């Protein structure tokens, strides 16, 4: 029989998450508090014995002047994606969300499709003919992921491609860079860094760069560097209030859910970053740095401190989050990919985000509206 779905309490949701080795930080109850423009709903799947077997954080965003919602489950739901009756898990979710007034549902299955080793990515960047990571032969492939994708298509789900006019605004990254920690000592992880990384960490130490954990009162200093970074890297920064809300909401749920790190040198903050933790998965979430004194390598120093602390926390994965799929030398994001590749980890491709139009007219209208905003 297919699992039964109903709304659950935050406490039930959090207890289930706490028992899992890895759940996205966007699928914990407190993430709904970070998004005040969305209404959060905790969903629970129950087996025949009444035991909770899956959860999902659904964020509902209202359409102006209408009691209709976009429903979004970022990097979720947390269910058995390998189940032979996958449709039996997803159909009750669609029915429940439609009953709440949703006209379109987007989800991001936490299912890995392919992995590329650091060596393969480095070679692809250097190869003159390579244009995109997806065109490079993967180090490993996950056959079940492609079966899941086909099953989703057959049941009416549509894969959301970056830049597509259908669906709503771009969501979570499909390609990320991760450093596996499972079964590795900190020394082994250090040896896995490339020579430039190890040299820069040592250089920062000799120059007197000190990396410390910050508190709520240090968020304005982080944000000032973050705004400078946004101008340099050409993206729209989030307001300070967003990070203050993140800090308050996430740490109320778990003191280690969010940490802030700052790299000091001679009384000046040169870099800062946030780190998120759920179970055995740690994410480098937001990073910021100034153009001053880059020669003392504060970015390498802060990342190594965060990786060291993540290892001490028992992390099995250190996640650098999104990377560009393009290998074009002219792309300004390629430098960030090179930086992450230097850690010796692996590029990871997920199944991506998928849309299900419950009301095709509203779904199409919103897709057209969002495409004109981009």
UniProtKB/TrEMBL annotation:
Matches recorded under InterPro entries: Acyl_CoA_acyltransferase, FEMABX, PG_Glycine_Bridge_Synth
Record's keyword annotation contains Ligase: no
Keywords: Acyltransferase, Cell shape, Cell wall biogenesis/degradation, Peptidoglycan synthesis, Transferase
PROSITE patterns the UniProt entry points to: FEMABX
Amino-acid biosynthesis listed as a keyword: no
Highest taxon listed in the record's lineage: Bacteria
Family: Belongs to the FemABX family.
Protein's recorded name: Peptidoglycan bridge formation protein FemAB
Species annotation: Streptomyces spiralis
Organism lineage: Bacteria, Bacillati, Actinomycetota, Actinomycetes, Kitasatosporales
């Amino acid at each position: 029989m297919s699992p039964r779905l109903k709304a659950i309490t935050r406490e039930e949701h959090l207890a289930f998450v706490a028992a899992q080795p890895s759940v996205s930080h966007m699928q914990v109850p407190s993430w709904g508090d970070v998004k005040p423009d969305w209404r959060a709903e905790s969903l629970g799947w129950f087996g025949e014995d009444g035991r909770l077997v899956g959860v999902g954080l659904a964020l509902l965003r209202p359409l102006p002047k209408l009691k209709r919602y976009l429903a979004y489950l970022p990097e979720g739901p947390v269910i058995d994606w390998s189940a032979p009756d996958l449709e039996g898990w997803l159909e009750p979710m669609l029915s429940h969300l439609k009953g709440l007034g949703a006209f379109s549902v987007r989800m991001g299955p936490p299912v890995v499709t392919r992995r590329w080793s650091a060596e393969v990515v480095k070679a692809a960047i250097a190869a003159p003919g390579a244009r995109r990571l997806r065109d490079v032969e993967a180090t490993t492939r996950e056959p079940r992921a492609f079966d899941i994708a086909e099953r989703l298509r057959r049941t009416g789900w549509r894969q959301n491609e970056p830049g597509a006019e259908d669906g709503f605004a771009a969501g979570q990254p499909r390609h990320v860079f991760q450093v596996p920690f499972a079964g590795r000592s900190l020394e082994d992880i250090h040896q896995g860094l490339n020579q430039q990384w190890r040299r820069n960490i040592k250089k920062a130490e000799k120059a007197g760069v000190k990396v410390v954990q910050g508190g709520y009162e240090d968020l304005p200093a982080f944000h000032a560097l973050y705004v400078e970074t946004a101008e340099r890297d050409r993206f729209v920064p989030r307001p300070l209030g967003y990070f203050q809300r993140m800090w308050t909401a996430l740490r109320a749920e778990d003191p280690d859910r969010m940490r802030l790190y700052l790299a000091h040198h001679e009384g000046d903050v040169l870099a800062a970053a946030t780190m998120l933790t759920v179970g055995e998965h740690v994410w480098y979430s937001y990073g910021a740095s100034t153009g001053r004194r880059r020669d003392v390598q504060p970015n390498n120093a802060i990342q190594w401190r965060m990786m060291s602390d993540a290892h001490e926390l028992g992390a099995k994965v250190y996640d650098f989050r999104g990377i560009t799929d393009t290998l074009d030398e002219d792309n300004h994001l390629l430098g960030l990919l090179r930086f992450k590749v230097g850690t010796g980890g692996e590029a990871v491709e997920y199944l991506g985000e998928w849309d299900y139009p419950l009301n095709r007219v509203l779904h199409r209208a919103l897709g057209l509206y969002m495409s004109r905003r981009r």
